[in-house]
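ok so i was messing around last nite and threw this chain in just to see what happens. nothing serious, just curious
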Amino acid sequence: MTEQITMEERKGRILVVDDVAKNIQILGNILRKEGYQIAYATNGVDAISMLLQTKFDLILLDIMMPELDGYETCKKIKDMPESKEIPIIFLTARTDTESIVKGFEIGGEDYITKPFNAQELLARVKTHVELRQKKEFLYSINDILKSKVQNKTKELNEANDRLSILEKAKGDFLKLISHEMRTPLNGMVLLTEQLEKTLTSQTQKENIQYLQTSIQKLLKFSSIALLITTLKAESYQLDFKTLPIEGVVKKVIKNILPNYQFKNISVEYDVSKDSVYVVKTDSHLLEECFGIVIDNAYRFTPSYSKILVSIFESDPYIVVKISDSGPGFGEKYLKTLFEYFSTDNIEHHTEGLGLGLSASKLIIDSLGGLINVGNKTDESGAFVTIHLKKI
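result:
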């Protein structure tokens, strides 16, 4: 149910300050007939005392008074927190510009000349009282909204604290799972390597090799999952260094090549011989990203085909484009390729590429770059472009 805030309809409360009783009587009669509540003071000191005790919507203030004149009284009223927002209309027999300007300068909102014209008086009073009441109404709305915002902010902060606790618990859990997976898997790697040396049957060797491949996939999955968890928890400490981008790519390819040597895939480079492309980035994360992308390119490129690595400038980035000769991405799946654990994009891959590309995007986002994927238009295959900021 929507809360409605309505403005109270009431006539204003007016304080008349004048040392002449006849003037107070005339003003009182005019204003009371219109339903206004009237209080009066015959000097500035009494007016200030009344303002400390009673709330008024308007002050009608005579200028020519003994002891404390209207100007001095106005200054003191405007200096008081309780009354500084109350509009003041000066009552004056003076019509010279200097006196009128002085009244505005010290905080008066309006003036009425003596002798009073009843219609003019009521029109000016009505305008200022309504403005005062509307202003108070807006203040009350603002206070209510401020309170609501504070309450909502408190609720959001509490919810955020709970979410942070849950995120930390989830991160710690995934780290534990990853560690618990890697420990027995590493032991299985050593055991299968020793077992392979004792086997003589070709079938048994093939089975062991299949088991080793499966173990490596699990280790890779565990490593990527741990990396994603660390980056999303923002607990990874970035270590930026100046690196030659081509050297990083070649290092990664050198490490991956033994796994795919049987496919006889060639790697070609399209890099300007006259340029040295250097970036400032985290070498470990960048190698992880290139490792994921290049491993996928090897995996889905047919035997005796090629992978093309292009490196070029596109301000304000250095761009690395890795193109394979595989089947490409299904068009309707291109939008979901960076989603974690996506199974929609299986036309191009069948073994966890979605997680790998998600990790790649998370890495590049952490490094302040961009990553895009697409299909080649002139031939079969897909490409991944990685944009890293120039130095």
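not much to say yet. Confidence is low (pLDDT under 50) at residues 342-353.
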